[in-house]
Structure prediction request, 297 residues.
Amino acid sequence: MERKSLVLLGLGLILIAAAIVLAVQFTPTPSGNASPSATTMPTHGTLRTPATLAPGDALTAVAPSVQTALDRLDRDTAKAAEALGPTAMTGNETRRVLRDLPLGSPAVIDAAAVSKDGIMLTVEPIDFSSAEGADISAQEQVRRLRSTQQPVMSRVFRTVEGVNATDIEYPVVAPSGRFNGSASLLIRPTVLLSMAVQEALTGKSAEVFVMDTDGLLLYDRDAAEVGRYAFSDPMYANNPELLAVAKRMATEPEGTGSYTFAAEGSATQVRKEVAWTSVGLHGTEWRVVAANATPTA
Prediction:
């Protein structure tokens, strides 16, 4: 190779090396898990703690969210009952109607076509098909529906599927006008409430619990309290103030009150100011309760 060519080659290699050095020096260094192409921006201030809502504001946010969730399932069940009218309550068309219900929701257990005599004729999803043929005519909500031929929502009860649940049922009427049974949607109230409360309180904080009119705690931020009965559980038995307010909640659709109780996750006693309102369907009500805790004097 000629000397001139070697010189030119050397100069080219030097220029390439210089370009590589400059590229490395001026490439931003990724921070944390950011992608190499991301530009690191300066941050100002600190993360903000979610605002804690007063009881009245918490109820304004949460109660409509819970009622909307119930109304949605109620409309779905009504639509299924209407679609079941022309069917024999068994067979492929009945299964198709039941599968159109929101069976994929974590809050929903199953859907059923129930005969006018209270027999579960068809159940979806297939995981619960063992319940087909079960006689549920003695269940309170089924007796009420058969008597009034009006939609119902049950209290929480132990189902033939072996779970504690709430049942929404709508009467099925044949094209001839004959009462033909009911469409049933079985739901997990604690899951439904958890989803609705979390949605309502996005970016906010509040102490909220939900109780039915039997005193059963359906939802609480403290999972250890869910499933307890306010009127009989030992946790509340020695607190006459709390029991008095709980009894008012069971009988009064809305109100306010106060009592002393242990702080959430602690043995320290605090004063709780509470406000409550009602949600529900077809005469069955749940009390949505919001609390504000302050240290005792």
Remarks:
- The longest strand covers residues 269-281.
- The helical segments are 3-25, 55-84, 92-99, 140-148, 189-200, 234-237, 240-251.
- Residues 71-188 form a domain with the Beta-Lactamase fold (CATH 3.30.450.20).
- Residues 1-45 have pLDDT under 50 and may be disordered.
